[in-house]
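Moderator note: this is an archived Q&A kept for reference. The question asked for a predicted structure of one protein chain; the sequence and the answer are reproduced below.
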Amino acid sequence: MARPKTFNPDQAMKEAMEAFWEHGYHATSVNDLLAEMKLNRGSLYGTFGDKRSLFLAALGEYERQGREAMAAALDRPVAARAALRQWVVEYAKTCCGQDGQRGCLGLKAAMELAPHDAEVARWVRQVSRRRERMVADAIERGQAEGDINARIDPRAAARYLLTALAGLRITGMWAPAEEELRDVVNLILRALD
């Protein structure tokens, strides 16, 4: 008979996500994870599998949280252009100061692993396409509302916005002040004119 878990798997996953986010995949050892998650090896392996499986699960959870936040921002009951603007402004704020220095776990995984790990590269492509579709849908809604230039290609504009925001996330790693990004945000949003 299996013993009941004496820890909260959701909390343990959160701790693992924080460790990978802070140090990256390769620099986070199993011992680091055990210390961060406050687990023994048997509990870690029995619940999450090996380090790689845990990392992929942490990436999946990180992506789910980000996707839900993004959907909530883009689906606000306001004009699509206003929702897009507010989403970009809020995103830029997370790229500033100490919080911005953490960067993005997804981007870190893409840079560290995707060039030589087909599974992570596939994950990055899937996440990118899903987010591109979400932004393109908001752009199409804005075009139908007459607030966004009807001549722009929604998918291309979505890719541009997401690429620019990824650049902001990377810029955030050197902790710019919010004022330093304000003009950049305005330029990014001009793509919808």
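Archived answer notes: Residues 110 and 117 are 9 Å apart (CA to CA).
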